[in-house]
Specification:
The structure holds two protein chains of two kinds. Chain A is mainly alpha-helical. Chain A has two domains: about 100 residues, Orthogonal Bundle (Rna Polymerase Sigma Factor, Chain: A), CATH 1.10.1740.10; about 70 residues, Winged helix-like DNA-binding domain superfamily/Winged helix DNA-binding domain (Arc Repressor Mutant, subunit A). Helices cover about 65% and strands about 0% of the residues of chain A. The N terminus of chain A is likely disordered. Chain B is an alpha+beta fold. Chain B has three domains: about 170 residues, no CATH class; about 250 residues, Gamma-adaptin ear (GAE) domain (Immunoglobulin-like, Sandwich); about 180 residues, 3-Layer(aba) Sandwich (Rossmann fold). Chain B is globular, with a radius of gyration of 31 Å. The two termini of chain B are about 50 Å apart. The chains are: A mainly alpha, B alpha+beta. At the A-B interface, helix 2, helix 3, helix 4, helix 5 and helix 6 of A face helix 1, helix 2, helix 11 and helix 12 of B.
Chain lengths: ~190, ~700
């Protein structure tokens, strides 16, 4: 638990930035300077990413839309604090995940939404039902885990991150991520 | 659950967002953006120059002057503790300046789900009120000004969370970067939930605990069954956190793993015919004068030195590129060096690497030729592609070739999670390892770095190979696992060890098993040999504690039933507290054997001082763990009392583990002082403190 998020070396920073990252950073700089068009382009470009991330975590379309809207509003101010040391999308992922956490922790909110599970599986079409059902069952089991375990599992397995990257998102040590994964697997063992 | 199953999560896709929702969100974002821009005419100048202007021109704005004068006490305090002696913003400027627009900020962030219209109206009304040239850092701004709303404690939390971070030199970017994302969330939900981007461990306000074992009524549920557990990971984890200055989450504290971390000097069985022996004591519970603590200490048989069979060890070492980190290959080399030092001259060591630089690095070499072995270890380097070198098969062939009559043959696989050992399919791998085990070559697995460690596969490989899986996260742990517990971790003496205790309702009215929540078995599992349980190695100790409430002590947590009949006491054995049964299988056996022994009343000691140091120390660890996790039970002892109990029970403590534990208690006491109604979680206390400071503004 040493250090802070700000101190942690940004894993996504590589010497070779992709074109998209460069474009993001240009837009961010302009938006920071007050360029309305740049900001709108930035939000427009990334809305789907925010929504999908939120949806993957909440499993509910309406919740994801609410979260995405809040993130967009937040960006108007938070953009000033983005300093380009990590990729814009990693930063945005963290902002979104924070919003997801809050929504899920707010008890008034919990249980109020009754929408159907919104995530889809490529095999949802006739023929691959079994696989799709299994994936959804796993998601449901994972979403019932304690928060840290759920986050660790989602980041490592659903988002396919390595433990170090997940640790940066979660703001903890790599070993702690591994620990949560270990614990989560213990909990999940026998459930599925 | 297997990785394969979990990776199915990756296949789930989010649906397309609805265009309406997207449009609403974009509009809301633009409104917020416009409002933000209107607030900051000096935006283009950048923050630092703005601050210089503010300071240099003698603060041109009335509100800002007031701000500097009325710098909130709380903020000052936090600023002071964070030692911002650098170019960071004087909080007052930022803070007060934004006080006027506070309603606007809050309303923006709080407009959670509503349509866009309300956002417009709040923004519109708030906007004109904003003074020109104010600082724009809402995140920090809210901290000082919102004293009556629920956000205040949250923001103060952020400040303290930031304070200990040693990044003063990084200036404002670092500060706001940390503050910004949580801030939005805080205002959105009003909880202190938002802190988890910051590694403040005790942040879990509504953290889910794993269910602690409850008190059971003996008459209703007289039998308690569980599997032994020699896992100790929880202790190392908790130790690491406390040493870094954080309180662990309650769920991270597993009482049995903490208790079992320590070696206890229970008497060992005399022969391998009874591979382990239970020592029982009943002492007054340190945290509850009315109850008793039943301690069951189990020690595995220790083969005498004369019976020691020569060891034939083959190190199978992962040298893939990912091992090139300080806590991986370099630590591995030093760890194996320790192990080599602990071997007898006639023991044999071979080294095989896989992934990266693959092949036989060291032919079977007697341990007396230490320098050759160490040289070979030293020459290992991590690098190269992870190719499917047939490392495992090679290691087994080498081990096979180095077998001597009566030798204990073992492959020790050391990796950071890369199991690309030549067999891809985990099941085939397990079968292969099982076959080799049956031919007399066992497998142990050492995990390093924990980076991408596949704990489950590691555990199951080791289990199939009759070995242990251990994590080596530092040199000290290497010493513990490889040298001190080398015997226990290399030689399994009994497997599938289950424990069942039947309590006598005539003597014990209630009982509670401390820890072992994840190791609970059903009552019927005890006699079912198909149900797997834990293993015991040579000389291993395992300790289980029950807090028991004697009949008539008045400490019962459950009221007696109005309509119950009291004829349940069928065996009138008033001199027995209960009956202990243990089942185990020989390392190569398939059917279990039973060890039974009554738990007599004569085991009860009237004074805890009469108990041995082991018993008292285990009680202290239990008390510490319970208090640390904010258990419903046993929070009544002060840290000092626990420390005193542990200190007086250190015994020999040849390795210093117990002394280290006492230091840990002191750390915990600093982090979660006792005045906060003992047993409460650290988060509660921190909140309380901060809320108070915040309201002082």
């Amino acid at each position: 638990m040493t250090g802070s998020l700000a101190l942690t070396p940004q894993l996504t920073q590589t010497p070779m930035r992709s074109a998209a990252t460069v474009r993001d950073n240009v837009l961010v700089d302009r938006a920071k300077a007050g360029d309305r068009l740049a900001f709108s382009q930035l939000v427009e470009t990334h809305y789907d990413f925010i929504f999908r991330t939120a949806c993957k975590w909440t499993g509910k379309k309406s919740d994801a839309e609410d979260i995405a809207q809040e993130v967009c509003i937040k960006l108007a101010t938070a953009i000033q604090s983005f300093d380009g040391r990590s990729a814009f999308t990693s930063w945005l992922y963290r902002v979104t995940l924070n919003m997801v956490r809050d929504m899920q922790r707010s008890t008034t909110r919990r249980g109020k939404t009754v929408d159907a599970f919104a995530l889809v599986h490529p095999e949802d079409d006739p023929g691959g039902q079994e696989e799709a059902t299994a994936a959804k069952e796993i998601w449901t089991a994972v979403s019932a885990l304690p928060e840290k375990q759920r986050e660790a599992i989602m980041l490592v397995y659903a988002e396919d991150m390595n433990h170090a990257d997940a640790a940066v998102i979660m703001g903890c040590k790599e070993a702690t991520v591994s620990w949560h994964i270990h614990e989560a697997k213990k909990t999940l063992r026998g459930l599925l | 659950m297997t990785d394969e199953a979990l990776f199915q999560l990756k296949t789930l896709r989010a649906p397309q967002p609805s265009p309406e929702a997207k449009k609403l969100a974009l509009n809301a974002a633009m409104l917020a953006f416009d409002a933000e821009q209107a607030k900051r005419p000096a935006a283009k100048a950048g923050w630092l120059s703005r601050w210089k202007i503010g300071a240099g021109l003698g603060v041109p704005l009335g509100t800002a002057v007031a701000a500097l004068v009325l710098l909130p006490l709380g903020t000052q305090m936090y600023t002071a503790t964070s030692q911002r002696a650098d170019g960071l913003p004087p909080k007052g400027d930022v803070t007060i300046a934004s006080s006027d627009d506070k309603p606007a900020d809050v309303s923006i962030a709080k407009e959670k789900t509503g349509p866009t219209a309300p956002v417009v109206s709040t923004l519109a009304t708030a906007e004109p009120a904003k003074p020109v040239g104010e600082a724009k850092d809402e995140e920090t701004g809210l901290a000082g000004t919102v004293t009556t709303t629920e956000e205040a404690p949250v923001e103060m939390d952020q400040l303290t969370a930031i304070a200990p971070a040693p990044e003063q030199a990084m200036g404002r970017d670092a500060l706001t970067k940390m503050a910004a994302p949580p801030s939005a969330n805080a205002t959105a939900s009003g909880g202190m939930a938002s802190l988890n981007a910051i590694p403040l461990q005790p942040e879990g306000d509504n953290f889910l605990k794993f269910d602690e074992n409850r008190v059971k009524i003996t008459k209703e549920e007289p039998v308690s069954t569980f599997s032994i557990d020699v896992d100790t990971a929880s202790y190392s984890y908790v130790r690491g956190l406390l040493e870094d200055g954080y309180l662990p989450e309650p769920e991270a504290v597993r009482l049995e793993e903490m208790i079992n971390y320590f070696p206890y000097d229970y008497p060992a069985p005399a022969s391998i015919d009874t591979p382990f022996q239970a020592t029982m004591t009943v002492i007054p519970t340190p945290w509850n004068p009315k109850t008793e603590l039943l301690e069951i200490g189990i020690k595995g048989y220790v083969p005498p030195a004369t019976e020691r069979q020569p060891e034939n060890l083959t190190f199978l070492i992962d040298t893939s590129g990912s091992m090139d980190e300080d806590n991986k290959l370099p630590l591995l080399k030093r760890s194996f060096g320790l192990l080599v030092d602990s071997l007898q001259p006639e023991d044999t060591v071979s080294i095989v690497t896989y992934a990266g630089s693959a092949g036989l690095v060291l032919r079977p070499t007697k341990a007396k030729d230490r320098s050759s072995i160490i040289d070979a270890l030293e020459r290992l380097y991590a690098g190269g592609p992870t190719d499917g070198a047939d490392g495992l098969a090679l290691a087994y062939r080498v081990a096979e070739g180095a077998k001597t009559p009566g030798s204990v043959n073992r492959v020790i696989l050391a990796t950071d999670g890369d199991f690309n050992v030549g067999i891809d399919d985990p099941d085939a791998l397990k079968t292969y390892i099982k076959t080799q085990r049956d031919q007399g070559v066992f497998l142990s697995v050492l995990g390093f770095g924990r980076g991408n460690l596949d704990d489950e596969l590691m555990q199951s490989l080791a289990q199939n190979g009759n070995g242990n899986a251990s994590y080596i996260d530092n040199f000290r742990e290497a010493q513990k696992v490889l040298v001190e517990e080398g015997g226990a971790n290399l030689v399994t003496i009994a497997k599938d060890v289950k424990i069942q205790v039947e309590f006598n309702p005539g003597v014990v009215s209630e009982y509670r098993l401390i820890g072992y929540e994840t190791r609970a078995l059903n009552r019927e599992d005890f006699n079912n040999d198909a149900v797997d349980a834990g293993e015991i190695g040579a000389g291993h100790t395992v300790t289980a504690l029950y807090e028991i409430t004697p009949v008539g002590s008045g400490a019962e947590l459950n009221d007696p039933l109005r309509y119950s009949t009291d004829a349940a006491n069928e065996v009138s054995a008033d001199d027995e507290i209960g009956f202990l049964k243990m089942r185990y299988k020989a390392p190569d056996g398939d059917t279990s054997k039973l060890i039974e022994t009554p738990i007599g009343r004569d085991l009860m000691l009237n004074d805890i001082a009469e108990a041995g140091t082991d018993q008292r120390f285990a009680a202290a660890v239990a008390a510490f763990g319970q208090k640390l996790k904010g258990s419903n039970y046993g929070g009544s002892m002060s840290w000092q009392q626990i420390a005193d109990l542990a200190n007086g029970a250190k015994g020999d403590d040849a390795n210093g583990y117990r002394a280290e534990f006492v230091q840990m208690i002191k750390l915990a006491a600093l982090l979660n002082p006792d005045h906060s109604a003992g047993g409460k979680s650290g988060a509660d206390d921190l909140n309380g403190g901060k809320a108070a400071s915040a309201s002082a503004n």
